[in-house]
Amino acid sequence: MEKYGTLLVAERGYDLTGGLSAWARENGHRLLSVNNLKDMIMTLQTQKVNVLVMDICLPDALGVEAIPIIKGLCQKLAIIITAEENNPDQESRVRQKGIFYYHVKSFGVDELMLAISNAMERSSH
Q1: What are the extents of the domains in the chain?
Q2: In 3-state terms, what secondary structure has residue 21?
Q3: Is 15 exposed, middle or buried, given 0-12, 13-18 or 19+ CB atoms closer than 10 A?
């Protein structure tokens, strides 16, 4: 049985949102989208979100430093960080913050959808 939840995508453009909207709808998930840190924080404070997909280069964001702020608001939130390129140093710093998954966009959206599904499953327990 598919677990339903809310997915928040925080990114500069709407590339991921466009790629994930049909998938989210088909799987019964609600998809919310924002393009800056302020709107992301406001959404997390006012909506029940199961999974956050956040671009590491979100405008006005603190990058890696934003993760503890988010975790302070939503301790059990599954956070998936996306990055344009494979940067092992950045990935290591991000993983140390306790995220659920680190996704390099060039690896494709299928891998990201699998990570979101796994995070949704975990958030339902």
Answers
A1: 6-123
A2: helix
A3: middle
Burial class, 75, CB count within 10 angstroms (exposed 0-12 / middle 13-18 / buried 19+)? exposed
81: CB partners within 8 A, 6+ apart: 54, 55, 56, 67, 94, 99, 101, 102, 103
Per the confidence metrics, is the pTM higher than 0.85?
yes
Question: What is the tens place of the pLDDT at every residue in 71-106?
Answer: 999 999 999 999 998 889 989 999 999 999 999 998
Counts for the chain of helices (H) and strands (E), in that order: 5, 5
Residue 120 CB neighbours (<10 A): 22
CATH of domain 6-123: 3.40.50.2300
| Alpha carbon distance 14, 91 (integer Å) | 23
State the virtual CA torsion across 22, 34, 103, 77 in degrees, nearest 10.
Answer: -100
